[in-house]
Amino acid sequence: xxxxxxxxxxxxxxxxxxxxxxxxxxxxxxxxxxxxxxxxxxxxxxxxxxxxxxxxxxxxxxxxxxxxxxxxxxxxxxxxxxxxxxxxxxxxxxxxxxxxxxxxxxxxxxxxxxxxxxxxxxxxxxxxxxxxxxxxxxxxxxxxxxxxxxxxxxxxxxxxxxxxxxxxxxxxxxxxxxxxxxxxxxxxxxxxxxxxxxxxxxxxxxxxxxxxxxxxxxxxxxxxxxxxxxxxxxxxxxxxxxxxxxxxxxxxxxxxxxxxxx
Length: 262
Fold this sequence. Notes:
10 helices; 2 domains; alpha+beta
């Protein structure tokens, strides 16, 4: 019973939608003070519980019935106080109703517009190509002005330690670690940074300042190693979910563009 009283927002919305959509002609499931609880409402709440992993059982059905009765008792008390007449409450009811319709539409759209295996494989290959076959362990010093970066390079040329120069960096995430950025791929950085980094030899630093949207960088390459990318099967669920979301987002944007909005 406690689990039912802690149902998710989705389950609550589904139940609310069932209550709104129910007609007087719906088959009666139960009644409270002479007011019918429709079977369609009970089916909606039951479906929500099953979707959350609950096993269909007599105990669950009894719990669903008790939950619906409790809701009806509370709803009737709310109506006695006239809460259902308040504009803000009516707005919430309309939103709940609309939310159920939106969810139903999107579920149907996803069912009829699945992401194909071919698209998933193509996206995987594109990502692998963008990542490359190497990882780079780099350090950097970030400053606001080009002259500051040139001054740092001049000090490095004289033998100053890069870790000491990093203390002047404007990057709070790396300045206290000697400018260390850890292992990453060139695609993880802004393009000017990544392009300059891959041209460096191990142990070398950029002899001219590198400009990006963040400021001016002096970059040191510590090491490189072969990139061990995850297999398609390992990332397939995440890729499919992301691509499916893109399809949904594009569909929503298309509908938005076609809509006449005053």
